[in-house]
Amino acid sequence: MNPIASELSMNDLNNKFFEIMQDEGVAEEATNFIYESVFDDVTVGFLFEFHHGLKTGLTELIEGEKEEEDVYKIVNSPECDVFGFSILKKTPDSNCSCPNCERPVSATRFAPHLEKCMGMGRNSSRIASRRIASNSREPTSYAGLLSDDEDDADWAGGSLQNERRKRRIKNNNNRKPNKLHNGNSRNNNGNSNSDANDGGATYETMTANEKKNLLLQICGVVSEHTKKLCTRSTRCPQHTEDQRRALRNSVLEPSTPESASMGAAADEAGSPPDSSPSSSCSSSSRKRDRHKAPPKINKRNKEPANRD
Amino acid sequence: MTVNNTIAHQRLILSGDRERFKELLRRRLIECGWRDQVRMLCRDVVKENESNQVTFDMLVTRVTPRARALVPDTVKKELLQKIKTHLLTQKDQ
């Protein structure tokens, strides 16, 4: 082919070209052929360019290192946030088990939990000691029926502690009557009723002056459910100004039937006056419920061991 | 047949029109992003053979078939149309 082409003169080539171009099909085929040839040239040109860049390091200089896109990809899975971190707050290794109740506790909540569980800290010690008191009170009353494997010395100590606890509870009672819910406190009823300050909570045993002083300091509205006084400030949000005014009117008026019946009801209840509204009741009972929970868990923990 | 093709090709080269078409195709391929796609193919080839040297022949044999398929139809049609009309209008001279 090439020899033929080279042998042709420019004139011959033109003549031949016009001759073959008469045929449409030949023109079509020639077009494809030329296109392929041109395309190959262009491709090879680009490849030369790339190869040159590659070998001389130009490509890397111009385009730089390719970025790792995986690092910045937005993670779209339910357990992770967009950065791919786990959204689960508690990881297993941050759990400590409480030495007292053996419940797993998050490390960040461990100190508060210990405070509650073992009774360290101001409020918690009261709660815990009361809890212990209520647990140990039952056995002491049936001391004669107890099994022999209980140490006598311990019991003596226990009752001593009990006395101390009772005293402390009584003090609490005087200071904050609403903290008292425990059956334990019933033992102190005789004492506390004779206490002027304590009895005052019923309005009945108070002198007019005492009532006045008391009502200047506290809200004093008698709760419908607990029949107790509200010991919050005079601006307590739970009761309305109208309620307070009505109560003051009825209480400061001597020997109104309402106040008398109120006092009687409070006495009838037999529990020491508790002016707390239902909220404090429920909160402390909740606390006690929480403290009751651990033994259940312990039992569950022990079950597998028994089975084994 | 091949002789005819060669004649047409030869005449196109002599008239300098082949160079024109080549430049046109080159520009079109850059415009449509084909060159960048081919460059990515080349990178892939380089990545695959990271251990041994990448030769130019290797690039040609690996990339050319895929590059040919990547050419947009519009560009190819335009080129074919232009070459054909060029060839057919030549004969009238």
From TrEMBL, chain A:
Residues 128-202, 228-308 are annotated as: Disordered. Residues 285-299 have a biased composition (Basic residues). It comes from the Eukaryota. Residues 128-137, 171-201, 271-284 have a biased composition (Low complexity). Keywords: Activator, Chromatin regulator, Metal-binding, Nucleus, Transcription, Transcription regulation, Zinc, Zinc-finger. GO terms for molecular function: transcription coactivator activity; zinc ion binding. A zinc finger (SGF11-type) spans 96-117. The keyword Nucleus applies. Residues 206-273 form the SCA7 domain. Coiled coil: none annotated. It is found in: Nucleus. GO terms for biological process: chromatin organization. Its main location: nucleus. Belongs to the SGF11 family. The C-terminal SGF11-type zinc-finger domain forms part of the 'catalytic lobe' of the SAGA deubiquitination module. Component of some SAGA transcription coactivator-HAT complexes. Within the SAGA complex, participates to a subcomplex of SAGA called the DUB module (deubiquitination module). This is SAGA-associated factor 11 homolog. The gene is Sgf11.
From TrEMBL, chain B:
Gene3D superfamilies: 1.10.246.140. It comes from the Eukaryota. The keyword Metal-binding does not apply. Transmembrane segments: none annotated. InterPro entries: TF_ENY2 (IPR018783), TF_EnY2_sf (IPR038212). One of its GO terms (molecular function) is transcription coactivator activity. GO terms for biological process: chromatin organization; mRNA export from nucleus; protein transport; transcription elongation by RNA polymerase II. It is found in: Nucleus, Nucleoplasm. Its main location: nucleus. GO terms for cellular component: DUBm complex; nuclear pore; nucleoplasm; SAGA complex; transcription export complex 2. Signal peptide: none annotated. Pfam families: EnY2. Keywords: Activator, Chromatin regulator, mRNA transport, Nucleus, Protein transport, Transcription, Transcription regulation, Translocation, Transport. Involved in mRNA export coupled transcription activation by association with both the TREX-2 and the SAGA complexes. The transcription regulatory histone acetylation (HAT) complex SAGA is a multiprotein complex that activates transcription by remodeling chromatin and mediating histone acetylation and deubiquitination. Within the SAGA complex, participates to a subcomplex that specifically deubiquitinates histones. The SAGA complex is recruited to specific gene promoters by activators, where it is required for transcription. PANTHER family: ENHANCER OF YELLOW 2 TRANSCRIPTION FACTOR. HAMAP family: ENY2_Sus1. Component of the nuclear pore complex (NPC)-associated TREX-2 complex (transcription and export complex 2). Component of the SAGA transcription coactivator-HAT complex. Within the SAGA complex, participates to a subcomplex of SAGA called the DUB module (deubiquitination module). Belongs to the ENY2 family. This is Enhancer of yellow 2 transcription factor. It comes from Loxostege sticticalis. The gene is e(y)2.
